[in-house]
Amino acid sequence: MEVAGLVLGAIPILIEGVRTYSELYSEWDKSKHLLAKRRRELSIEHIKLQQTLDHLGPELAMDTIMVEPGSEEHETIIGTLKDMGDSIHKLREQLDINEQGLPKSNRRAKDQWKRIKRSFKKKETIDLFDEIHRYNDNLRVYFEARREISSDKTTVQVSVQQTRHISKICQQLRKDLCTLHDALNRVRNDTCANLHPSIINLAWHQQNFNLSGNITLSFPDRDTCHQSSWSWQGVKAEIERKEPIKKMNINRSAMATNLESPMRAVRLNTPVDDIMEPSTASASTTDSTPQLSEQILTLCSIPQETLSNGFLSSSSVDGEARIKFEKSLPPGKSMDTLPWRTLLTNASDSSLQQRLVRKRNMSRKDGLAIAAAATWSVLLLCGTPWLEETRVGAKDITLLADSASGKPDDSGFTGASPAVQFDFNSPSPPGTAGQEPPERGPEKPHSMIRHRALFALAILLLEIGLDRPIATLEDDDTSLLKSYEIADGVVDELYDEMGDAYTEAVKRCLEFNFEGRKSLKHFGNESLRQQFFHGVVAPVQERYSQEQTRHRVLGDIKEAKLH
């Protein structure tokens, strides 16, 4: 690239000029410190820039590695290189060095040295050195972040992500999710033909998000709960479990504590409008003036009862539990759902695109946030009542966005949070209301589709990586086989787009490539969950983290340009 070549060639001219000054004026530069220091600094900057450009490889053009020419991102990088070149030119003028790296002035040596010495110590000169250093660092970090996407070195970063998986915490969260589902299912009304949907927000992919005990639940607004489409209200759920008192070896002080506080509170959520940050809500404590609360008896009343200290109860072999709800959105604010596939560049649903994303598709970072959230949701929800292992596409990933705007803001889709929807009641056929559903035998997987839920996840990861829809997931063998053949034919395209680790994760899901006996390959088995985390969740999470880093560096570069 011409701009990069000019910058790369301008730094040695400065180095040569400083070296010439050092030789000419060594008699007056007693300490030798000033010129030597600046010469070293320039040499280091030259090496750093040379390495940054060399790492791109001789066969790759910078225009390609920096994404599509003419895009905002491309212009930012080109602008940074030009700014760096301008700073070098100003510094050369400030130090009175010509294009051959020689002093311009013909003054007496001693007088010239005094002027040069003043120039080196001027704030403007120091600032120019700092600018060159800052521009160079921004470019280096940016290109390294992009290069790591397709580098085998990603396995090192993936291993760091793998340390996030804590088996006991994962198991406890799955247990809490089952408790929540059981409590909601207990109050469903079989005679009611309304859907009664609920949504679990997915935020476990956030780097600073505490995995343990964080669930956000949303219900339809009470004014629209009987319609075919809903506005959603976020609620905070709190689970209280009774701790059984052991009959043997009872510690009296511990017993006294248990008597004072017989319920163990677990905070299960973070606000919907703050889903991208860790929850700051503290666990509830016993109030000196406890408010009266009523047990929620039907799903139909949940939108209203969550506003008045309503609670649900659950009882299982693990003990009794109580789930309390608290509205988390400000008054008058609600959320709408948005199918994530409509945000792909080549999405076919033009009506939604025209209404919501007329001139903007989701960024790579936002797409990878959905991908990472989806892998975490499978890890924590698959095999629980929230997400079946034997069905495809029944509970698609959706997005929750602020219904006030009705469209993404200028920053993209960062305000929309991934979520999974579950309908507790399905419309009953005429004459069957209140009857038990017919028994359904276990579904036999297709010979090529060995795990339907992971196959659906593979399609999601593939479509996000390629930024285009490739299949329609209908729950019948013919369409599934066709979708598999399409996916298998294009999956290798991901290597160039998303890197080795991400692509191998997609292939694992597509082929259900996990070790162990067939009878143990289900998400109730800790061994499979461990393999799934290491082979799928961690690589996708790391790819998302890389994109976050690249996005942040690009923002720093743009901010530096403004200053």
From TrEMBL:
Biased amino acid composition, Basic and acidic residues:
437-446
| Disordered: region residues | 406-446
Spell out the Pfam families in the cross-references.
Answer: DUF7580
| InterPro entries (alphabetical) | DUF7580
DUF7580 domain segment(s): 174-545
PANTHER family, per the entry = ANK_REP_REGION DOMAIN-CONTAINING PROTEIN (PTHR35186), PRION-INHIBITION AND PROPAGATION HELO DOMAIN-CONTAINING PROTEIN (PTHR35186:SF4)
Name the record gives this protein: DUF7580 domain-containing protein
Species for this entry = Pestalotiopsis fici (strain W106-1 / CGMCC3.15140)
